[in-house]
Amino acid sequence: DIIPQPLLDQYLSMTDPARAQTVDTEIAKHCAYSLPGVALTLGRQNWHCLKDTYETLASDVQWKVRRTLAFSIHELAVILGDQLTAADLVPIFNGFLKDLDEVRIGVLKHLYDFLKLLHADKRREYLYQLQEFVVTDNSRNWRFRYELAEQLILILELYNPNDVYDYLRHIALTLCSDKVSEVRWISFKLVVAILQKFYANSANALGLNFINELVVRFRHCSKWVGRQAFAFICQVGMFSLCFCVYIKFG
């Protein structure tokens, strides 16, 4: 009653390999690009009509097809709701996390948008995997690490201070020592956001431990770039706090 059956059948047939040879070599990519719109039109109650097609596209040998889905999986999650997302999208999302960088960047750019739709217990499982984003197929792909830092600033609100300290803090410190200045600069903002997270949640002990680590790691660094990093962290927005710590610890 929503879409004429012949039209839907025509759309679903776009994943047929024979169509790529006879109609358009990028027909599967076009199918992937349109899928969120088709899903929205059909509604979540008719997701079963698209589920097999989506899984077929998610395992397509062409990385451009998988990349297209990776960039829109957060939009599909909104359409389907939390239960269908957990059952049908999370496994595909996990596969994209281990894919080529060209595909991983799709989920990374909307990592916060996807994680916020998951239940807290399921969301917490990804704390162990966020570290993997620091490693890329091409180490010169610094924009990947820049995007990671930007997403982590948003993601902080999804986790409690202890989780931030145990998992996200390590990533932030690693990014602060990146070889590319643009990555370091956005990472300084991430460090400040982490400190603000601690003190906003009255986790003062965690905040002091983290500041002490920053002082030891950067203020007393034997290389000038490390000492410069400490100055930039202060500049980003924590002048008074970092200055007091500097006076206290020397």
Automatic annotation (TrEMBL):
<dbReference type="InterPro" id="IPR016024">
    <property type="entry name" value="ARM-type_fold"/>
</dbReference>
<dbReference type="GO" id="GO:0005737">
    <property type="term" value="C:cytoplasm"/>
</dbReference>
<keyword id="KW-0472">Membrane</keyword>
<dbReference type="GO" id="GO:0019888">
    <property type="term" value="F:protein phosphatase regulator activity"/>
</dbReference>
<protein>
    <submittedName>
        <fullName>PP4R1 phosphatase</fullName>
    </submittedName>
</protein>
<dbReference type="InterPro" id="IPR051023">
    <property type="entry name" value="PP2A_Regulatory_Subunit_A"/>
</dbReference>
<keyword id="KW-0677">Repeat</keyword>
<keyword id="KW-1133">Transmembrane helix</keyword>
<dbReference type="InterPro" id="IPR011989">
    <property type="entry name" value="ARM-like"/>
</dbReference>
<keyword id="KW-0812">Transmembrane</keyword>
<feature type="transmembrane region" description="Helical">
    <location>
        <begin position="229"/>
        <end position="249"/>
    </location>
</feature>
